[in-house]
Design a protein that fits this description.
Elements (H helix, E strand, L loop, with lengths): L2 H10 L4 E2 L1 E6 L5 E6 L3 E4 L4 E7 L3 H9 L1 E6 L5 H8 L10 E3 L5 E3 L4 E13 L2 E13 L6 E4 L2 E4 L3 H9 L3
Antiparallel strand pairs: 1-11, 2-3, 2-6, 4-5, 5-10, 6-9, 7-8, 9-10, 11-12
Bound molecules: flavin mononucleotide.
Length: 170
Amino acid sequence: MSDAQRLFRDVLGHFPTSVVAITTTDADGRPRGLVVGTFTSVSLDPPLVSFLVDRSSVTLRGIRDAGRFCANALAGNQERLSRKMAAAGNRFEGVGWTPSPLGNPVLDGIVAWVDCTVETVVEIGDHLLVVGRVADLRIESMRTPLLFFRGGYGDYLSSSLLVLDRLTGG
Ligand SMILES: Cc1cc2nc3c(=O)[nH]c(=O)nc-3n(C[C@H](O)[C@H](O)[C@H](O)COP(=O)(O)O)c2cc1C
């Protein structure tokens, strides 16, 4: 990696991101997924969302084959699940999930999910932008979200909660 690329990674690592598990199933109905920090909403009308995925991603092939995916917003206490979803091996071993309306895994314990069909895939640099058309979506819980910042995980704490904590001496 060149110095310029290292600087790119370092500076961009100072922009906090959400931690989202993108899930799908293969032809045999087995769950597949990966973690991304690049999930974002794109358009309200029509309802579109997107994420960026490395060209080498194995899961991307599955998503393209299935033509659908579900974006799962991980909760603040799901760091282990995130590590699992980004590591080698069976990512779903011991992970509870139920099928979304489109048949994608909705992971247990998440904050919210967005169920999509693949609208388009655009090549951008060394990544691919996957744009999804929203078929269904839901808030699952009022848990706080998992965040990623400067190469590490963290939990979200709202300013009002902080103030409350200080007022109550917590
Ligand atoms: C917090 C976090 C954010 C990530 N964001 C992305 C991302 O936006 N796009 C991507 O392609 N990989 C991202 N990754 C890395 C993938 O999860 C990882 O490379 C995974 O092994 C790819 O899986 P696959 O090759 O099975 O598809 C991220 C990993 C972590 C831990």
